[in-house]
Structures are given as C-alpha cells and as structure tokens.
C-alpha cells in the first residue's frame, strides 16, 4: 500500500510535465511552406541556398550546392518576410543574389534562378497542384532560355503545342499516366518550326511535374546547350 501511494504522485507529476512540454511545443509551433529551388541561370556558379537568410546560419561545408540544371526542396517559415541568400560555392564570402519571399502556411512554390552570367534573377511560381484521379499526372512547361524568343513545346500525344516566351510558364495540365499512354516525347522548336532539342519522359502517376527548358539556343562553344530538365513537385 505504501509503495502505491508513492508511485501515484510520481505518475501525476510525470503527466503534468508531459502536458507542459506539449503546451510549450504547441506555442512554439511555426507554420511552414515547401519551396523548391531550381538553378537555371546560365554561366552562374554552383550556389549554396541559405534559406535562413543570415550569412552565418548554415555550415557551407555540409550544405549541398545547386549546380546548373539541378534542384532541391527547402522548408521555410510561413507568413513572414524570409530573406534567401544564394552564395557562390567557390567563394562563400560572395553572395550572388538575395531575394525575399513571404508565403502563406501550407503553400507549395517553386523558385527558379534565371538569367545569365552576373545578371541572375529569380522567378517565383505558386504551384497550383492538380488532384489526380487514377492513372493521371500533371505537367506544366516553362521557358528559361535567356537568349530565346518564343519556343514551342510539342508532344507526340495528348498535349496541345505550347508557345512560350522567356520566363513564361503554363499551369499544370492533366495528362494520361497509364502503362500504354504514359510516355511522352517532346520536340522544342523555334518560331520557324526548327527542332532545337528533344526530350522524353514518363509522366509520374498521381504527381505533378514541371518541364523547364534551360540553356542557350545559341551556345557557341560554351557548353550550355538547350536542354529540358524535369522538376517534380512535392
């Protein structure tokens, strides 16, 4: 009996501590947004994404850098002005660009780095994701080739041709993602109908994806040939 009387107060104390901890966690809860960052700036260096917005907030040696054509997802606080720094991976004292975002809780957006050389800019798109039925997917297109005029995306099935100027994008459109109709071959053409490059992909069932045209129409000897990169939304 004596042991039970001791155990009961201890159990009650532990319960109150747990409740206080939960209350503290609730008060400290910070709503967040998902932000996908895509590096599509021609001739810009690989960049660290400092999404804390402070020069000393990340350890660069363990922070992956985004190279041209790559992308990554970051979670940032919602409902506040959040400064995002893009830092040269070869010289971390050099901030190539900074931008400020303020996104509502639950938002899903994509931030594209655009432009060329030292003229790097950002383009923020809110991802109006489609809710899919069985065996469908969503695809949108964006033209991020800085020396392009209008470029035409043309598919071999199920998608009408789309003509886009630099930094223009479509919304997501629903396409088939079945075993028999889920593979798509694209031609990217100039305004005269000349094929500049091609791309093939399988539509990811129940998912939404962006096909971004990056690089240069006239790359000379720079090795930045026009190409399509696929950016999956989450």
Descriptive account of the structure:
It is globular and about 45 Å long. Strand 10 (151-155) and strand 11 form a beta hairpin. The protein is built from 1 helix and 16 strands. Strands 4-1-7-8 form a 4-stranded mixed beta sheet, with no helix packed on it. It has a 4-stranded antiparallel beta sheet with strand order 3-2-5-6, with no helix packed on it. Strands 12-9-15-16 form a 4-stranded mixed beta sheet, with no helix packed on it. It folds into 3 domains: 1-29; 31-127, Immunoglobulin-like, CATH 2.60.40; 132-234, Type VI secretion system, lipoprotein SciN (Immunoglobulin-like, Sandwich). Mean pLDDT is 84; it is low at 1-26. It starts with a helix and ends with a strand. The relative contact order is 0.15. It is 12% helix and 43% strand. By secondary structure, the chain is mainly beta.
Give a quick summary of the entry.
This protein is mainly beta and 234 residues long.
Helix content: 10-25%
CATH superfamily of the largest domain: Type VI secretion system, lipoprotein SciN
**Strands, count:** 16
Strand content: 35-45%
Secondary structure tally, helices? 1
Radius of gyration: 23 Å
Topology:
Elements: H1 2-28, E1 32-39, E2 47-50, E3 65-66, E4 71-77, E5 82-88, E6 95-101, E7 108-116, E8 119-126, E9 136-143, E10 151-155, E11 162-164, E12 173-176, E13 183-189, E14 195-202, E15 208-214, E16 227-232
Parallel strand pairs: 1-7, 9-15
Antiparallel strand pairs: 1-4, 2-3, 2-5, 5-6, 7-8, 9-12, 10-11, 10-13, 13-14, 15-16
